[in-house]
Amino acid sequence: MIQKSKLVLFVMFAFIATLHAQKISGELKTWHKVTLTFNGPNTSETATPNPFTDYKLDVTFTKGKTSYTVPGYYAACDNPAEGCTSGNKWNVHFAPDSKGTWTYKVSFKTGKDVAITETIHPKSAGFMDGATGTFKIQASDKTGKDFRAPNKGRLQYVGERYLRFSGTNPKNPNGQWFIKAGADSPENTFAYDDFDATPNRRFSRWNNKKGTLASFKRTRKSWNAHQQDYNPQEASSYTWQNGKGTELLGVVNYLSSQGANAMSFLTFNAGGDDQNIFPHLMNIPIQAYEDLPNGHDKKMSYAERKDLWDHLQKDRFDVSKLAQWEKILEYADTKGLYLHFKTMENENCKFMDNNKNGRERKLYYRELIARFSHHLALNWNITEETVIPDDVVISISKYISSIDPYHHNLVLHTFPGQQKQKYPQLLGNKSKLTGASIQKDRHLIHQSVKTWIQASAEAGKKWVVANDEQGSAGQGIRIPLNVIRHQVLWATLMAGGAGVEYYYGYTDNDGDIHNQDHRLRGDLYKEGSYAIHFFNTYFQNYLIDAVSNDELTENKNDYVLANNGKAYVVYLPKGGSTKIKLANKRWKIQWYNPRNGTMSNKEKLNKEHILNAPDHQNDWIALIMR
Predict the structure, then answer these.
(1) With 70 as the cut, is the pLDDT of residue 578 above it?
(2) Smallest Cα–Cα separation from 530: which of 486, 594, 592?
(3) Based on the domain organization, do 478 and 432 belong to the same domain?
(4) Residue 14 to residue 25: CA distance in whole angstroms
(5) Cα Rg of the chain, angstroms
(6) Domain count, the chain
(7) Among candidate residues 158, 107, 97, 203, the one with its CA nearest the CA of residue 512
(8) Distance between CA 378 and CA 384 in Å, rounded?
């Protein structure tokens, strides 16, 4: 009888241990994605109770005084990118920032909307609730552009106008400041054939002047032009379902190979321009969604746009599609691409919770953060061309900040003419925003970036200000390269801006919605990489204390970035000569070519402090140092 009781207890404990078992996967190294997979409730995307709302998984990772509480999510099965809708797997992703032994403790609660509701005494969901464990992290062995390299690591907002890498670098023991130059377009990058349950609605563009339909075509992408850029030796592990994803992996590789270090994409555009991207489940078949009214003979009404949102399941998510998104973003980490998450756009940012910050919006952001916040270099953009009320923006920013364990850069994008209406109410401690995503016509970019750098500093919290869209809307950067260098790229950087993303223009062929080939703008990314190289190589140690001071030269068209008394950068848009006001000390000068990334030898600057560029036709950068 005693032996039988012992056997029963042994079987019970073995059964419970199986239920609570977790798998730790990924390379156990600093900055790498470490995934804890738990055996939790065996459920499905459409089950009751709802696995996305009525369970809350959080894991707290601790090492010494460092602690991160990371939200988890319902993954369904071991390999959801291969396609599944049910199962008992629950995941948490963590990116450790130091080597040594980390401990973890699991919180797994249940209750009505417990995922987004703070209750005093949430009910235990059993299974892995309360489980603890340890794992040991080694130093990263990655090199080059890979953000997981020891000298890079996580990009963090540290109260300055640039983000800073957390990794250690002998040349920059406090971390290196980050400047970006990458792709703002196409915003519908994720409207991709190989992603599960991604529809192909027809895009209609209305001509306001003529009052007629300007275009009407489908916009889902094959990305076939970038199949040639797919590198199976390094990217095959990021494919799914017998080799899907190669074209978009090729996009990532191409952008990186041209020198880009940032890419932008919408994660929710139901009711927006493209209308095909969302993480949610549909409550109607794909074909029915594709055939919903789409402004065949008139401009699409707000009610018709919101109807698209109403045909999605607002509190349930597509686990296989999101796992496939993650495959692309994981590869982007290895190629050194900063991830600009545009979480909503102008046409649909009012849909959730009737333009409030409630259940629908909170669930959406929790899912994004649980699945993607482990990525090392990113920003959350609350919305493109916002029409969300200020108090709601403030509420959203507080919510995101409260659940993002790494406190990534948090920005807002406005219409070009509405910056002064929106940003002042959000500066300083009025919101949790840490930056601005600036849209401006090109001849106003330099001053606009300066304005919000100065305004944010005066409000007590410096913003990371980037120029992420150039106008006019139909033109974007469909202008000569020398104009882009002058009025967009160097205009931003010489104002103290954190970088640029290039907007392709609102056109019917190769623009922001329809583009499927980044080669059309390859030279932009090469020249952007030359600018990044200049600041990383020659001005990194002077950057944080430098300010825009264009008045130091006699030429009104020059840009000057000055670390007074130590180092100066002068951009001359047409070369030639100009005089700079400097203290009467000995100075050396070098000339940098922004068209090919080459630097001249150092020379003594003449006593009159007159700068004589190598020619009088092209743009040149003067680097002046004591």
Answers:
(1) yes
(2) 594
(3) yes
(4) 22
(5) 26
(6) 3
(7) 203
(8) 16
Q: Which whole-number Å values give the CA distances from 444 to 76, 416, 440, 573, in the listed order?
A: 49, 10, 6, 16
The answer to the question of residue 469 being in a domain is yes
Phi, psi dihedrals of residue 436, rounded to the nearest 5°: -130, 135
In contact, 93 and 371? CB cutoff 8 Å: yes
pLDDT at res. 95: 98
Q: Which of 516, 532, 566 is the last residue of a domain?
A: 516
DSSP string, 37-78: EEEEEEEETT-SS-TTTSEEEEEEEEETTEEEEEE-EEEESS
CATH code at 502? 3.20.20.80
The domain spanning residue 611 has which CATH number?
Answer: 2.60.40
Tokens of 599: 């630097």
- How far apart, in whole angstroms, are the C-alpha atoms of residue 409 and residue 214? 37
Shared domain check, 498 and 569: no
Q: Name the token pair of 441.
A: 């016509």
Q: HEC states along 194-250?
A: CCCCCCCCEEEEEECCCCEEEEEEECCECCHHHHHHCCHHHHHHHCECCCECHHHHH
Whose CA is closest to 295, among 378, 204, 219? 204
Confidence of residue 2 (pLDDT cuts 50, 70, 90): very low
Q: What is the pLDDT of residues 99-130, one digit of tens each?
A: 999 999 999 999 999 999 977 788 999 999 99
CB 595 within 8 A of CB 604: no
Residue span of the structural domain in which 583 resides: 544-625
CA dist list (Å): 234 to 246, 249, 253, 329, 585 = 11, 10, 10, 14, 52
User: What CATH code is carried by the domain that includes residue 40?
Assistant: 2.60.40.10
User: Are 377 and 415 members of one domain?
Assistant: yes
What is the rounded distance in angstroms from the CA atom of residue 332 to the CA atom of residue 352?
29
Share of the chain above pLDDT 70, in %: 94
